[in-house]
Amino acid sequence: MAVGKPLKSEIELKHRPLTPFRILRGLVCLMVLLSTAFMFLVIFAPLAAVLLRACSIHYSRKAASLLFGLWLALWPFLFEKINKTKLFFYGEHVPSGERVLLIANHRTEVDWMYLWDLALRKGRLGYIKYILKNSLMKLPIFGWGFHIFEFIPLERKWENDEPIMHQMLLTLTNRQDPLWLALFPEGTDFTEQKCRSSQNFAAENGLPMLNNVLLPKTKGFYACLDTLRSSLDAVYDVTIAYKNSCPDLMDNVYGVDPSEVHIDIRRIPLKQIPVAEEEASAWLIDAFQRKDKLLTYFNTKGHFPNQRSEAELSTVKCLINCTLVIALTGIFTYVAFVSMWMRVYIALSCVYLASATYFNFRPLPLLDFVKSRLCRDKRKK
């Protein structure tokens, strides 16, 4: 059985050499990203995700998204302004302000980061949430953030994932809460070995043979549609490809790759996607056949068809945002050195974040809590 060759961009050398300067610069950038993430979480998470949430989930999410967006904007700044990675956009212009389910192919471990560049341009950076594998919740610092910002963790066993996914999706149905929910239906990043397994499965089950993507898993996609259909505006079908090669996290940190990121976007109104599960699953497989063809085209031409313009990030705004984040981190770090009470607050915050993430706990607003207790007491009587 013929297996699709890896994209040409995957077998080339790194775009930029890994010099001592790039290593030093990358380590400084990584230190800034980690320290600012830690300080923003331990200082602001208890205020936004506990105290404010006790009054209103909506305003709690607003505050958390504002802070999340400030920190996340450091990454597009790193990619586009420091690393000089060029982003090219294709397909349809998508409007700002929509609630959407976003489906994307999964070439590498950092695909999800380049969605931030698109979200920043559409004013949705702080509102993007991911459906991700449960093991990522165990990452130090970042796992806390994934919990606070209500990412949905999966074990990749549907019998275990279904109730958790359904429960968390139900909390995202309020149209007043902006939402970009990102799903990678392949369930894992693309490799030749995984492609062979996917093709074997396709041959045994009469499904399409795909060379540049894996067959998508349809149950999670349908669960998202079924639960959120009445509160979503559209599905964004996103296809990502890279030059010079598919990067990993440290390639991004050191700025050695990729030289270019190409992003094709197709907007599908919800009414055009079938309601029945079997038909919606077939629609998703068709969407991945389209992705496969697009990636074949990219492999041949070095770009997608129908390139369009998208606003460049403002260097001034990026610098102001970066300065603000670093300044706030510096202030809180200084206060922690001179104030015992700040150190106690940070210690308690760490305990809360670690335990809340481990037990997957989020406080209910007090009014909702009282109502639930009253309902429970009535049922007992």
Automatic annotation (TrEMBL):
SMART domains: PlsC (SM00563)
Native source organism of the sequence: Spinacia oleracea (Spinach)
Catalytic activity, reaction form: a 1-acyl-sn-glycero-3-phosphate + an acyl-CoA = a 1,2-diacyl-sn-glycero-3-phosphate + CoA
Domain of life of the source: Eukaryota
EC numbers on record: 2.3.1.51
Transmembrane domains' residue ranges: 23-51, 63-79, 318-338, 344-361
UniProt protein name: 1-acylglycerol-3-phosphate O-acyltransferase
UniProt xrefs under InterPro entries: Acyltransf_C (IPR032098), Plipid/glycerol_acylTrfase (IPR002123)
A molecular function GO annotation: acyltransferase activity
GO cellular component, one term: endomembrane system
Keywords from the named record: Acyltransferase, Membrane, Transferase, Transmembrane, Transmembrane helix
Pathway noted in the entry: Lipid metabolism; Phospholipid metabolism; CDP-diacylglycerol biosynthesis; CDP-diacylglycerol from sn-glycerol 3-phosphate: step 2/3
Phospholipid/glycerol acyltransferase domain residues: 100-222
Chain's gene name: LOC110785248
Enzyme class: transferase
Family: Belongs to the 1-acyl-sn-glycerol-3-phosphate acyltransferase family.
